[in-house]
Design brief:
A seven-stranded mixed β-sheet has the order 3-2-1-4-6-5-9, sandwiched between helices. A two-stranded antiparallel ribbon has the order 7-8. The protein has eight helices and nine strands. It is of the alpha/beta class.
């Protein structure tokens, strides 16, 4: 049974006005299963999202506008800094970092709320909880190696271990890093990484099967495509740097049947979309 005295804090990045309501609702649902002492900080990456009213606006404790220089990663850095100015956060308090897509683009429900909250409640110090993905082999990115990464839609950590992740925006203003990423005819080339990473990026950004890869894969905007690639690289760097620092990545779905159920639900969603 979890300690009701600990705090649970969500730092939620909001991009899309029409995602805001569900993101707030499910954030509150997850928090309610972790602690009675909860806070929600919303960091807006667009002015439109801030102006969108919802029936859950009363749940917001803190809100601020982000620079959006590094998408959700810089927003998490800025949101955490803001929350730490506003309140005291103890070592055993739980911090949840999410973006408002976490409950969209896949069949999210109370089942996922339970999976996520149970995993967070089981987490020990030194562990980061998230949706863990595995590479087929050890990869190298910007002189750091690893074999797994966390999807950046939602992850959780104890305050004591926040140094395993900071800064979230690891690429930041590194213009040389960004300039070395090349998008050529449906392929991503990046000299600071191995072939496995380049193949991973190319397959995700330019999927050949419906329901696979980036939900916005039809995008024709080269600048937006490159920004998305940078976000994926930030996501991978966040995970492999955490492990290099001594952290452990722990899955929301530790049992095989959980992962199987999620895959089935995703396939069912794609099938229903084809019929509609």
């Amino acid at each position: 049974m979890y300690d009701r005295k600990r705090q649970a804090i969500v730092i939620l990045v909001s991009y899309y006005p029409h995602y805001k309501e569900s993101a707030l609702k499910y954030s509150a649902n997850i928090l309610s299963k972790i602690s009675d002492e909860v806070k929600i900080c919303v960091v807006y990456n667009t002015a439109e999202a801030r102006s969108q009213p919802t029936q859950y606006n009363h749940l917001i404790d803190f809100e601020l506008e982000s620079s959006n220089k590094g998408w959700e990663f810089s927003a998490w850095d800025e949101g955490l800094a803001h929350v730490r100015q506003q309140m005291n956060i103890a070592d055993d308090d739980v911090l949840i970092f999410a973006n408002d897509t976490f409950c969209h683009h896949w069949p999210f429900s109370s089942l996922n709320v339970n999976f996520i909250s149970q995993a967070i409640n089981r987490a020990s110090f030194g562990e980061v909880v998230g949706d863990i993905k595995h590479f087929k082999q050890t990869i190298q990115l910007n002189q750091v190696t690893g074999d797994a990464w966390m999807a950046s839609y939602l992850l959780a950590i104890h305050m004591k271990d926040i140094g395993l992740l900071l800064p979230f925006d690891k690429i930041g203003c590194d213009d040389d890093f960004k300039a070395s990423i090349l998008v050529n005819h449906g392929k991503i080339e990046f000299v600071r990484s191995c072939a496995e990473i380049q193949n991973h990026l190319s397959t995700y950004m330019f999927p050949t099967k419906q329901g696979k890869g980036w939900y916005n894969a039809s995008c024709q905007n080269p600048e937006l495509i490159k920004l998305k690639v940078i976000a994926i690289l930030n996501e991978i760097l966040l995970s492999i740097t955490c492990v290099q620092r001594g952290g452990k990545l722990v899955s929301f779905h530790p049992q095989k049947w959980m992962r199987t159920l999620n895959r089935f639900r995703r396939k069912w969603m794609v099938f229903k979309r084809k019929l509609s």
